[in-house]
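sorry for the late reply, my laptop died twice this morning and i had to redo everyting from scratch. anyway the thing you sent over, i finally got around to it. pasting the sequence first so we're on the same page, its 532 residues, then the predicted structure underneath. double check i copied it right bc i was rushing
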Amino acid sequence: MLARRVRDACLATAARLARLAKRRPHAVALQALGGVLSFALVIAPAQAAGGAGIPVSGQPTEASKATDASKATDAHKATEANKVTQASEATEPTESAATAASAEATSYLATLRTQVQALIAAGNAEAAFSLVAAHEDAGTGDPDYDYLLGTTALAAGRPAVAVHALERVVLVQPSYAGAWLDLAIAHYRLNELDTADRMLAHVEQNFDPPPALRTDIEAVRRNISSARRWRGWQGDVGAFAGHTSNANYGLSVSALRLTLDGVPATLLLDPSYQPRADSFGELRASASRRFELDAGRQADATVALRHRLHASQSAQDQWDASATGSWRRPVPWRGQDGAVLFAAGSVRELRFDGRGVSQLQASGGLRVPVGACIISGRADLDQRRFSGASAYDALIPWLGAGAECGRTGLQWGGQLRLGRDLAANDRPGGDSLRAETLAFSRWQAQPNLQLGALLIAAHTRDDDAYSPLLAGGSRRWVNRLAAKLEAVWVPGPNPRSPWAVVIEIESIRDRSNIGLSTLDVTQILLGLNYRL
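ok and here's the structure:
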């Protein structure tokens, strides 16, 4: 990732120079849930492999978890306000740094720096960060601006932003020991302890830090040592309450239109097939761990458990358990660094009313940086087994591609994949062609507020006629539109608090030429999550 950011910094610097010179009956319910899980099983390995998607369990994202590393006696409450004004005091500036500092005195950065210092001194680091970030388009690539952005981001509790900015600084000014130290602090606050340790070693081995800087280095080292004692599995537990418009995943139609010996007929469905609304309570727990391997390789493991209890529809109570593992390593790609080869696997079991669906998935692919985005190509193999409805068992090979882009506090992207749903048994309709599209966005609106949106559009078309009695013997098609909105809010003034309030709103709409495949579900959920 450092190599990719280095390349991005080069591009940003070049751009600045140019500016200066330019997701019924039990089978139906299981199929519906299986479809909902389809993208969840893609997103989770993708996230673990460095991909993107909204946290499906309402947990804070990895970046927000990682900032909790500072709970380990964060002795290095470095005076960020002073750092903002001491860009070159930590070590003797190079000749180019001195020249830049001189030019800065007469630029807008001098005024901006004064305003930022006043806001931080008044305890309003978030306002200071917003002020600096507003100049990102014009300032990115200027080491003086990037250092101001990085140190202000640290003060505002945004270490991920600080990492990007400070890496650009040390690229242009590699002899800037203070920037290296702040970069180490940013990685420490992201719980990237090995990287932070290497940065500190770089400062000690390549510079002669003055006493004040050595004191800061030792403080950060103590924090890293303390964090390592607590390093390992990280977890989340949560309790939620919600309401769903369709607890039993009932059909959206009250009658089926049949064709009997060429004569149209109408079959009224039993009321038990209709949607039944209900309220529910839900418990969630998860644990994850990252393993830092050699040669820049990383591995992640995640386990999660969810239990939903309905107020009246107890037959629909759910147990949902999953485990995901991923591995990635940096690889060269067409002469450039920053590309990542990844592989992932997951297993998931969903049970209700003595029935359920099991899913196994294996994935692999390549992620390549292109400008400010990351382009990915992947292959997935998805196996689904439906307990009590084995006719719907299937093996689905997928091919997909996606992109993720972002800037300060905002990420967005999408993914498209095509699959062949191979029926394992004599299934109505036979094999199917599947196409699924996903779009997402995440916005760190405030240090303690993250908003997310997810949109899924999917199409399925069978190879063979579903039934001679339905739709005149036509092949079945199903179009799904699913959307999810999520807000994660950390109450209180400390954005690193382990408590978070989670709100989720989710909607699923399935439309088909076969009434048995129509579905409408809307649910809202509110709860409290605690990060262990």
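The mean pLDDT is 80.
thats about all i looked at so far, will dig more tmrw
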